[in-house]
Design brief:
Bound molecules: BIS(adenosine)-5'-pentaphosphate
Order of helices and strands: EHEHHHEHEHEEEHHEH
Oligomer: single chain
Number of domains: 1
CATH architecture: 3-Layer(aba) Sandwich
Distance between the termini: 13 Å
Strand order of the largest sheet: 2-3-1-4-8
Strand content: 5-15%
Structural class: alpha/beta
Number of strands: 8
Helix content: 40-55%
CATH class: Alpha Beta
Length: 211
């Protein structure tokens, strides 16, 4: 299954919850890149220069990283992808790699108006340790300034600064939005209105998974 949607739509928020409920592994391409940066790998250093500017990491690099993850983590129960594919080239590579299996069952497209996305990204906070996602206004930390889940350090992503956010939204429109029609034509796309409370969105999303 794939979660598709603009930056700030709630892909990360829902990917963890849905993967937990379905007991399947999940891969978030942005998290994988950030993990490489934390470990100061050559891939991490390369990706950083693109991510800071809010543009996509080149397809070849991203596809290789994700295919390695699928090779190591894919199983009979399937898996959940958050933030991949993000270009038509990535979608073709994914389709090709899964062609001997059953392919992608479902693509959930989470739609949220741009003004709401900007508000969500500007207030987002993340745990450096377990990647739990919070929001100053919509999902505030309960325990002072540390992660409620693991006590880890909380930080704000570099690419959540206003200039990067606007760039990411433009890149999304140009490079990723065409995937909506691509998957709609394959009749595996389900539309979900993401401009509701997290619990409401999750209810619709779980129904879409079961449909
Ligand atoms: P990535 O980390 O994937 O960022 P993104 O796609 O821009 O998505 P976000 O993580 O910003 O948003 P989200 O939809 O997960 O929202 P969230 O749940 O956090 O990618 C970062 C960069 O890595 C890219 O720019 C690119 O450079 C590179 N990259 C990654 N994948 C790539 C690929 N495939 N190809 C090439 N390059 C790639 O929610 C946002 C906030 O809203 C949170 O604070 C949350 O608490 C709040 N919130 C969520 N839902 C709700 C709700 N229903 N109501 C109120 N608040 C909510």
């Amino acid at each position: 299954m794939v979660l598709l949607g603009p930056p700030g739509a709630g892909k990360g928020t829902h990917a963890s919850r849905v993967a937990g409920k379905l007991s399947v592994p999940k891969m978030a391409s942005g998290d994988l890149f950030r993990e490489h940066q934390k470990n100061n790998t050559s891939l991490g250093r390369l990706a950083q220069s693109y991510m800071e500017r809010g543009v996509l990491v080149p397809d070849e690099i991203t596809i290789n990283m994700v295919m390695d993850w699928i090779g190591e983590n894919g199983n009979d129960r399937g898996f959940l992808l958050d933030g991949f594919p993000r270009t038509l080239t990535q979608a073709s590579a994914l389709a090709e790699s899964l062609s001997v299996d059953s392919g992608i069952d479902r693509v959930i497209y989470i739609d949220v108006p741009t003004a709401v996305l900007i508000r969500r990204l500007s207030g987002r906070q993340i745990c450096r340790c377990c990647q739990s996602i919070y929001h100053l206004e919509f999902a505030p930390l309960q325990s002072g300034g540390e992660c409620d889940n693991c006590g880890g350090e909380i930080y704000q992503r570099e690419d959540d600064r206003k200039e990067s956010v606007l760039c990411r939204l433009e890149v999304y429109k140009a490079e990723t939005e065409p995937l909506i029609e691509y998957y709609r034509n394959l009749e595996i796309l389900v539309d979900v209105d993401g401009n509701k409370d997290v619990e409401d969105v999750e209810g619709v999303l779980m129904k879409a998974v079961g449909s």
